[in-house]
Write a structure and sequence with these properties.
The protein is mainly alpha-helical. 40% of the residues lie in helices and 9% in strands. The strands form two sheets. A two-stranded antiparallel ribbon has the order 1-2.
Length: 125
């Protein structure tokens, strides 16, 4: 699945085999026993977040959007290159490259130091 602006929007596209896992909500419960908990306070996401994405794309134009995408890829791969000797970089392709987001596995810190992912998230705020 891929969202359109973060967890506030929720999934906007999903393959058929993943449909049973789509989030439910207490206002509109899912009929699937495999559904995950709500990802946003609003049952259908926050449509206003989509306006921000639209305005950003409109402001950049085609060339600007391409350039900002290239810079995002370059930055993520630079960070992956610098951190890969110290952390386990997740979701690389066959060339060892990452996409526009860099994901590192923090699970090893639970075993070695008793730290959870939320401990890191709190420090980044």
């Amino acid at each position: 699945p891929h969202g359109g602006g973060g967890p506030g929007v929720g999934p906007i596209c999903v393959a058929q085999h993943l449909a049973p896992f789509l989030p439910g909500h207490h206002v509109r419960p899912s009929e699937s026993p495999l559904a995950i908990d709500a990802t946003a306070a609003a049952p259908f996401g926050s449509a206003s977040v989509s306006l921000i994405s639209w305005a950003y794309i409109r402001m950049l134009g085609g060339n600007g959007l391409r350039e900002s995408s290239n810079i995002a890829l370059l930055n993520a791969n630079y960070m992956a290159s610098r951190l890969s000797g110290h952390y386990s970089v997740r979701y690389t392709n066959e060339n060892g490259r990452v996409a526009h987001e860099l994901l590192i596995d923090l699970g090893e810190f639970g075993k070695s130091a008793g730290l959870k992912v939320m401990d890191f998230a709190k420090r980044l705020q």
